[in-house]
């Protein structure tokens, strides 16, 4: 009886998706201006990383941060907030 | 810093303040959480079917019942003897207008849920319609400036005060311009049992009409002018306020935003009223110092 009752319960689960699957969506093509990070001026403070809305800043082997251009939408918050003026926004030319 | 719990590839507008708030929330909360989000920018940009940006369990409720869904999850976790923090992350429309009934119920029952409102001060996802969180003087598509209108004619609803009136043990406001402060408040909320309410200001380049690289500057200016005071209230007592040295005139905040352009072009009375709002905040919370 109990078993039958349990089987009668049908939950409609709605849409279920896998975690962190938005990485298939390369938002980098939205970009007009591209941030260029200058390692010589960088003091590794990480402010660019804290404020990046895309969460797309990665740290390289030497500990310097660079954006993943696959996702960077070119908002320029990193360049605006960088205390060392180590990030420049330049008009991006796209090939093809 | 870069939160491992939130993936890139979401479709929030370039320069959006909301995902910055999400990163800070996840940094403070850690991975043992269940997030409930009602309809809003957050839902449509981070969970475009069949993808999700979330690295923690996340559920979409209806527009109006995020608080009730969170209460249900909290009860279920208790019954199952499992340990996780239930967090609601909702926009201002879902919080101050549409979901306020369910939210009031959650506060009143004393459920152990952290309710976080990211406030972009209008219905941005559907095209910048005013809501009760829209500040005085702002032009939106449903409070447009024109011959007979100077924009929104009602002051911003004070939801933190409504939460305090419910006897909520922890109420805080924050701005993404001060990331350490946001993370600290999320961590503090985790330590308190019972309902918690945190209100975070997240500027919106699309709806507020400013350059997309100015998001953080504007988030700071809202605080520095006194228009968005950041404070903490525990057990009904104001325990901490972010003091402002040399409070800036409100023009500095307004002039960067298209939604206020008309105010500076000729609505002098309204400009004075906006300055009065900032002055009253400063007096009420003792901001100057």
Structural summary, described in words:
The complex is a heterodimer of chains A (96) and B (289). By secondary structure, chain A is of the alpha+beta class. Chain A has one domain (18-91): Alpha-Beta Plaits, CATH 3.30.70. Helices cover 18% and strands 17% of the residues of chain A. Chain A has helices spanning 2-8, 47-51, 77-81; strands at 33-37, 57-59, 65-67, 87-91. The N and C termini of chain A lie far apart (67 Å). The model of chain A has no long low-confidence stretch (mean pLDDT 90). Chain B is α/β, with parallel strands linked by helices. Chain B has helices at 18-29, 41-46, 66-80, 92-98, 100-109, 159-165, 179-191, 205-208, 215-224, 251-254, 261-266, 268-285, and strands at residues 33-37, 58-60, 85-91, 113-119, 145-146, 149-150, 170-175, 196-201, 231-234, 237-241. In chain B, strand 7 (170-175), helix 7 (179-191) and strand 8 (196-201) form a beta-alpha-beta unit. The A-B interface holds A 14-15, 17-27, 30-31, 46, 49-59, 68, 70-71, 73-77, 79-81, 89 and B 1-3, 6-12, 14-20, 23-24, 46-56, 60, 176, 179, 205, 211-217. Chain B: It is an enzyme of class 1 (oxidoreductase). Chain B: InterPro entries: PorB-like, THDP-binding, TPP_enzyme_TPP-bd. Chain B: This is Pyruvate synthase subunit beta. Chain B: Its EC number is 1.2.7.1.
